[in-house]
Amino acid sequence: MSKIAVFFSEGFEEIEALTVVDLCRRAKLETDMVAVENGDSCLGSHGIRVDMDKKLQDICFSDYDMLVLPGGLKGTQGLEACQILMEQIDSFYTNGKAIAAVCAAPSIFGHRGILKGRKACSYPSFESHLEGAQVTAGPVEISENVITSRGMGTAMDFGLAIIGYLEGKDLADSIAKQIVYR
Asked: Are the C-beta atoms of residues 17 and 25 closer than 8 Å to each other?
């Protein structure tokens, strides 16, 4: 099974982050919640504190098949300010490894030139940051090794798309059926 890291920064959007973690763990993907501020926990944008599995300083990026960035305005700003994480996002992208972002976080990919010539989506007020992308209003866009999604309302689609990308449509469909989705 695949292994993913979901990165948390203070002010993350709880539904976006935890829906991905929940769905991926149901699918038996090894899923680590990683604090970029290196704390034992992280406070979400709506006051929900979540214990982390790992600290950024303690992970080996080469162990992962995908890096996932949840949104939330403050959380997205914190992720983008983390130079180590940004270097790894660039490396994963350049080497054809999977990266995914939802809500405001796809703006990070836009700022880094990753979305040029790709279909991509984000929270509506962040669409102008998807530099060079063909912006859509779809719930999820998968363009080669880059997955983007729009926000809290598309978190289920986003999590299932991650499962489908890494482990196949049959498993994603099975998880969707288990959780009575659609």
From this structure: no
CA distances, 127 to each of 7, 20, 48, 77, 83 (Å): 22, 22, 27, 16, 23
pTM greater than 0.85: yes
Q: Which domains does the chain show, CATH number per domain?
A: 3-178 (3.40.50.880)
Q: Is the pLDDT of residue 164 over 90?
A: yes
Distance between CA atoms of 96 and 45, rounded to whole angstroms?
32
**Nearby residues of 47 by Cβ (< 8 Å), 6 or more positions away:** none
CA-wise closest residue to 10 among 104, 101, 73, 99: 73
Q: Are strands 54-55 and 30-35 parallel, antiparallel or unpaired?
A: parallel
